[in-house]
Amino acid sequence: MKSNYLLILFLFLSSFGFAQGYDVGGVVKEAGSGLPIPGVNVQVKNSTIGTSTDMDGRFSLKGVAADATLVFTYIGFKNREYKVVASNSALSISLEEDSKVLDEVVVIGYGTQKRREVTGAVSVVDSKTLEALKPVRIEQALQGTVSGVNVTTTSGAPGAALDIRIRGIATNGENRPTTIIDGYVGELGLLNPNDVESITVLKDAQAAIYGTIGANGIILITTKSGKKNSKARISYNSYTGFQETSRTLPTLNATEYALLLNESYANGGNPVPFPNVSGLGKGTNWQNEVFSISVPIINHDISFSGGSDKITYAVSGSHLDQEGIIGESKSGFLRNTARVSLGADVSEKLKLKTNVIYTYFNRKSLNENGLGSVLFNALNTPSTLSPYDANGDFTKVPTNTGLGIEIINPLAQMANTYNDYNFKKVNGNFGLDYKVFKDFTISSSIGFNTSNSESKSFAKQILYWINPSDKVFDVLRSSVSQSAINDNDYSFDLFGTYTKKVAEDHNITATIGNTIFKQFGNGLFATGFDVPYNSWEFADIALTKGISETVPNSSYNYDERRLSYFARGQYDYKGKYLFSAMIRRDASTKFGPGNKVGYFPSFTAGWVISDEGFFGEDKIINFMKLRGSYGTLGNDQIPNNGYISQLSGEATYVFDDVLVNGLATGQTPNPNLKWEEARKFDVGLDFKLLQNKVSIVADYFIDTRADLLIPFIPVSGINGTAAPGAASPTINAGTVRNSGLEFSIDYKNKFSDNFSMSVGYNVTFLKNEVLEVNNGIGYIEGGAFGVGQLPPSRMEVGKPIGYFFGYQTDGIFQNQAEVAAHPSQLALGAEASPGDLRFVDVNGDGILDPNDRTSIGDPIPAATMGFNLQMNYKNFDFAVYTFASVGNDMVRNYERNLTDVNRLNYVLDRWTGEGSTNSTPRVTTGATGNSTFSSYFVEDASYLRIQNMQLGYSLDPKYSEKAGITKVRLYAGVNNLYTFTKYKGFDPGASNGSPIGGGIDYGFYPIPRTYLLGLNINF
C-alpha cells in the first residue's frame, strides 16, 4: 500500500512539472522605431534551448519552464532578459540600441567593424530589403537603394548581364566592381538572391585592402548561415507570375505609312507607290507580332538552417524558370542553385567554416540589339506587309533602295534562330580561425571558382529574299558552331588579427597577411559546315562533312596570377577618435618585367563629435560623426598577355602559287604596360536624429583615375590590326576624374502598435571629366551610328567620357532665302532645301564640314536618386521602390535611314511648308543631309521608374503555429511597373556597357513588366 502512495505522489509531481512547460512566442522590435528585428538570438538562460527571430521579428519556443529566463541578444542592441510568466505566452520585446555598440557590424574586408567606427564610405543592403524587392538578379537590389551606385541593363532578355558602376565611369577599360562572396572573389550575377544575408558596398579608399582589384569599388556579399542554439528552421519561398513588355513604340499604321511614303516619293519627283490607299487599314503592328503577353516566370526556393552550441548549418536550393517577352522559349532562361554552409567550433580556439555554391543555368538568346536585331526589324518593316503569305509561309521583305538589304521579317528571324548555352559552376571557400592567444587570431581561407560552359549555334541555310546574298542575313551554307570553355581560379588567404584594449580607452586592431590568386582555363571553338537535313535536330559537328576554305577551329589557354601582401592598422580612443591605415603590395603577371609590382596605401580617419563633452545631451542629434579617407587603388582587369606578342592571329600565305592558311601575330604587344591607379578622396558626415529615428549620410568625393588601361586602342593599320585574330594594343593612355556629392536620409518610426513606417531617399550628383588622353591625337572615338558614318562618341580632354560628338542643328530651313543665306551643306550629303535640317557652322569659317562637329550630348546622368517606402499596418505590409536618372542623353539609332522603312509617328509632325514646324524635317526620296549624325538624334533620356511595388499579408501566428508553422505570408507585387520619361525609345536606362558609345540606343530589348504572386512559409 505504501508503494502505491509513493507511485501516486510521483505521478502527481511529474504531471505538475509537465504542466509548467509553456509555449512562448512573440515579436522583438526596436525600442525607438517599433520596427521588427530579424535574426535576434532568443536563448533560455543556462540551457541549450533557443531560436532566432524571423524576417518579421517573430519567434516561438515550446516547453519553456514557468520560472525560466529568456535572453535576447542582437549586435548593436543592449541584451535583455525576460522571466517567463504563465499568464503571458505572447510577448512583445523591445530592444534598445546600445550606445557603446551602435548599429550593426559591417564587413569591411578581412574583418568587421562596428558601424559607428567605420571611417570609409560604406553602404549596406540588408536581407529585409532583398525580401521586399524580390530581384531576379541580385544586382537589381542595388539600383535606387545605395547612393553612388548605378545599375544599367544591356538587355531586358532573361539572363542578360547587368552593368554596375560605383561613383561613375572612370576608364574606357573595365569599370565593373569586384565582388567578394564570403571572402573570395565571385560572380554577383550567379547568386540566388534568397541566399544573400547582406550586401556591403565599399566606395572609397576603404577598399584599398583589396589593392589591384579595388579601383572600381568592392561589393561584399555575406550569405545566410545558421545560428547557434537555434532549432531547425525550414523556409520555403515561391512566386509565380507573368511578364509583358513595359513599352511599345508608336509606329505608323498601314494607311499612315502609305500616305507618308507617297508624299516622300512625290517630294523626290518620283511616282507614288500607293496610288490607292483605301482598304489598307491599320495593317500589321510588327511589335504586337514579336512581343508576347502573359509570359511565365516561376521561382522556388527552400532552405534549412539551425545550429547547436558548436555547429551551425544552412542548406538551400532554388529553381528559376523565365521565358522572354520576345520569342518566349527562344530567349528563355533557367537557373538552378544549391548551397551548403557549415560552421563548427572544434574547440575554444579553433573554428571551421565552409560555404559551397553550385549554379547551373541554360540560356537561349536572340539578336537583342543593334542593326538587324529582332526589334530593329519590327520597327522598320512596313506595316503594309503581312506576317505570312497566301501559302502560310513567312512573308519576305523586298530588297530595294528604299528598304535596303538588312531588314527581314522578324518572325522568320526568330523562327530561324537556334542556339543553346549551358553553364555549370561550383564555387565556395573553406576557412578556419585559430585563436593563438587571447588577443591574436590567425585566419586562413581557400576560395575557388570552377566553371564549364558549352554553347551551340546553328545557322540554317535560308534566303530571306529571292537571290543569294540579296539580304545580309542570307545563309548560303548551313553550319553549326560549338564551343567548350573551362575557367578556374583559386585564392589562398592567410592573415592574422591582433586586437588589444590598452588602459580602457585605447583600442588597437592590427591585421597582416597575404593572398595568392590564380586564374587559369582554356577554350575550344569549332565550326562544321553542311548540317544534315539543314536541321537543328542534326546540328552537331560530328555529323558535318563540309570543308571550309578558312580555319574553322580555334582554341586558347591562359594562366594569370597575383601575389599580394597587405597590412592594416586601426586605432580608436574611447571610440571617439578613429584612425586606420592600410597598404597592399600586389604583383601581377598581366604586366611585363619592371611593372609587375604595385603598392597601394590608404588612410581613413573619423571623429565621433557627439561623444564630446561640449556636445551635451542633444535631444535632436543623437549621433554625429565626421570621417575622411584618401588612398590609391589599382586595376589590372585587362586582356591577358597584353605586354607580349603571340601568334594568335590568322593569315593566308602564298607558297608556290598556292594559298596556305597560317598564323600571324595577334594583339599588338605593349611591354610598357603598368598599373592603372585610382586616387580616391572622400569626406563624409553621419547623423542620427530624433531618438535615432532619422539617419543621414552625406559624402563628397573625388575619384581620379590615372594611367588608364585602355584595351584595343586604335593604331595605324600598317601593324595589321585589322587581320582576323589580331587586335590593337592595350596602353596606359589617360586620366579621368569623377567628383560628386552623395546624400541619403532614412526615417523609421512606429506611430502606434498597429502602424509603422520606413522611408528612405538618396541622391548622387556626379561630374565626369577627362583630364588626359595620351594617344597622339588627343581623343579616342567609339560607338556607331547608322551605316558608314563617323563614330558618334568620344573620350576627349575637358569633356565627360563618351560624350556625343556631331553636328549641332538649328531648326529647319523654312524657305529658299534661308538656304541661300546659310553656308553650303553639300559636304554633309546634299545641298539643303526648304524643310531640311539646318546645321550650325560652329567654327564660323563659312563651310559646313566635319570640322564643325561639336559636343551635342552627355550619356552620363548629372544625378541619380532613389525613393523607397515601407509600411506595416497590423498584418499587412506594403513597399515601393523607385529610381530616377536626371540629365543623361541617349542617341536614337534604332531607325534605319532609308525611304521605305516604317517610322515612329512623330514624323507625322514633319515639315510640309513654311511655318509648319521647326523641329522635324520633310520626308523625301531625294538626297539630303538629314540622316547625318546630329543633335536631332540626341534626346534627353531622364526618367523616373517605379521599380517595385509589393503588398503582403502575414497570417496571425496564433493560427499558423498550431500546424507547426511560424510564418505564412502571401504577397502580390509588380516589378518595373512604369517609367516616366520623354525619351522615345524602349528603355532610357539601358546601355551597351561600353564607356565610349554606351548611350547609343540600337533598339534595346525592353525590361519586362512582371506581375507576381508569392508565398513565404517558415516552419
UniProtKB/TrEMBL annotation:
The keyword Aminoacyl-tRNA synthetase does not apply. It is a multi-pass membrane protein. GO terms for cellular component: cell outer membrane. It is found in: Cell outer membrane. Residues 380-873 form the TonB-dependent receptor-like beta-barrel domain. Keywords: Cell outer membrane, Membrane, Receptor, Signal, TonB box, Transmembrane, Transmembrane beta strand, Transport. Residues 115-218 form the TonB-dependent receptor plug domain. Residues 1-19 form the signal peptide. GO terms for biological process: siderophore transmembrane transport. GO terms for molecular function: siderophore uptake transmembrane transporter activity. InterPro entries: Beta-barrel_TonB, Beta-barrel_TonB_sf, CarboxyPept-like_regulatory, Plug_dom, Plug_dom_sf, TonB-dep_OMP_SusC/RagA, TonB-dep_OMP_SusC/RagA_CS, TonB-dep_rcpt-like. It holds the Pfam family TonB_dep_Rec_b-barrel. Belongs to the TonB-dependent receptor family. This is TonB-linked outer membrane protein, SusC/RagA family.
